[in-house]
Amino acid sequence: MSCRSTRPGSKARRATPATGFPTTTRATAARSTSTTVSERPSAHDPRPPRPPRTHMTITINGSPVELPGDPRVSLLDLLREHLHLFGAKKGCNQGACGACTVLVDGERVLSCLALAVQCEGREVTTIEGLAPQGDLHPLQKAFVEHDGFQCGYCTPGQICSAMGMAQELRQGVPSHVTADLCTERIALSHDELRERMSGNVCRCGAYNGIVAAISETFETFEDSEKEPA
């Protein structure tokens, strides 16, 4: 009988081998072996290796910008939350108010409904990029002169949308009220202007000033071509 005793409440350890480390139990060894085997890459794995992530960029107001790693980030959140370009506003966040309108390759886009990754390799222009030299764009000056804004929340989207509308006229894109669908030149008439700008909502009701500012800047198709881009 051994005279060695253990302390009350403690468990006796198994005899240690010559290495001096306590031996592991059979169950622990089995768990360790199974974990090691599962973590090893299988030579018969049919899945191809994951390719390394490539850097994707877009051009925003003339400067290249790397896209975020999360493909769920909207273009609006990229502009506001990542780049701190607060011109485009988050109004309804459902594409109904037009406050988030920006230009993508010259076309007006609702940035709250567009994913940032969809704009890879394309050029995005926000209200901050319309006059990069620090001066106001002629359309911005017209908004000031005709009192085309009150609170100013929808103004960046209104101006970007009007710029995209002028591009549509240059390309001869008809609207719902265009009478002649075969014409190459569409005049910016009273009905054309209001129909094409109907997707931009002004809760202050400054529509008369907005229409006057746009009419003065882009009165006809020929006049719009003379304005600087």
Protein model, in words:
- With 229 residues, the protein is of the alpha+beta class.
- 31% of the residues lie in helices and 8% in strands.
- The chain has seven helices and five strands; from the N terminus they run H-E-E-H-E-E-E-H-H-H-H-H.
- It has helices spanning 26-39, 75-82, 138-145, 155-171, 190-196, 207-217, 221-226, and strands at 57-60, 63-66, 101-104, 107-110, 123-125.
- It has a five-stranded mixed β-sheet, with helices on one face.
- Strand 1 and strand 2 form a beta hairpin.
Task: List the defining traits of the structure above.
31% helix; 229 residues; disordered N terminus; globular
What topology emerges from the helices and strands here?
Elements: H1 26-39, E1 57-60, E2 63-66, H2 75-82, E3 101-104, E4 107-110, E5 123-125, H3 138-145, H4 155-171, H5 190-196, H6 207-217, H7 221-226
Parallel strand pairs: 1-5
Antiparallel strand pairs: 1-2, 3-4, 3-5
Helix pairs in contact: 3-6
Task: Give the terminus-to-terminus CA distance.
Answer: 100 Å
Q: What is the structural class?
A: alpha+beta
Largest sheet: 5 strands, mixed
What is the mean predicted local confidence, pLDDT? Answer: 82
Q: In one word, what is the shape?
A: globular
Put the structure in a nutshell.
By secondary structure, this protein is α+β, with helices and mostly antiparallel strands. Helix content is 31%, strand content 8%.
